[in-house]
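Weekly structure sync, notes
Attendees: PL, DS, HV (note-taker this week)

Item 1: Hydrolase
DS walked through the input record. Source organism listed as Paenibacillus zeirhizosphaerae. Sequence as pasted into the shared doc:
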Amino acid sequence: MIFASDLDRTLIYSRKSMGTVPENELVPVELYQGDYISYMTQTSIELLQKLAGHAMFIPVTTRTEEQYKRIFFIEEHLQPKYAVTSNGGKILIDGILDQAWSAHIQHSLKESAAPEEVSSAFAQISSPEWVRKIEFSDELFFSVMLYPERAPIPVIEEFRHRLAAMGWHVSFQGRKLYLVPAGINKGDAVLYIRDVVGARYIASAGDSLLDESLLNISDLALSPRHGELYARKPDKAGVRYTRLSGIKAAEELIAEITTYFLSIQQQVPTIS
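Item 1 (cont.): predicted structure, written out as tokens:
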């Protein structure tokens, strides 16, 4: 059994995204330039550690490999054998890049427009008034830092349709806009791992449109109510949204997934 989960705004939260929660419930999980910048609740940590005893936990993130490794809690306390970074562009096995998957990704990129074409198209709509910085992350996809209050939503929505015709996806997540080739997605990466380990069941969690491919291939799919996915697709078939929002949503979804796996184990004790 596999529990594959997005990280930011699903399991871990910045102070801006967590909502109101007592300080004594928070545990820092990410260190960057000497400061703690992401947190989980103590309850979420305990629940996740319990869940990892019943299923293979796979972190699945749009973060680059370098950004993922800043989350010290995962490596020190959970030590997952597999991790998916760069929105599915990379798979790490015991912290080492899976070269076979990387070769597959390079082949799949040929099905989408070249990054230079996408960069040129975005340059036609971008402006310093709302774009702070643009990066080509891991030479796979674009991460655009925004001034979200100034972002021209209708222009971005029109660009979304334009990019879809070029074989790229757009995800708008507050201060960031992601432009990602269709061949790089979380769902395909987790299916690859599932086949390698021979698992039969997948439960997943994620909050954004970039998590949709992961949720679509899962037997149980949960999404925090505060996320981009809920905002755009509140009636999405096959996905259950949490009752809670903010950092407390993590407790709810981990608890429900644990109950799901325990029920499977009770039915067929030898299932994997």
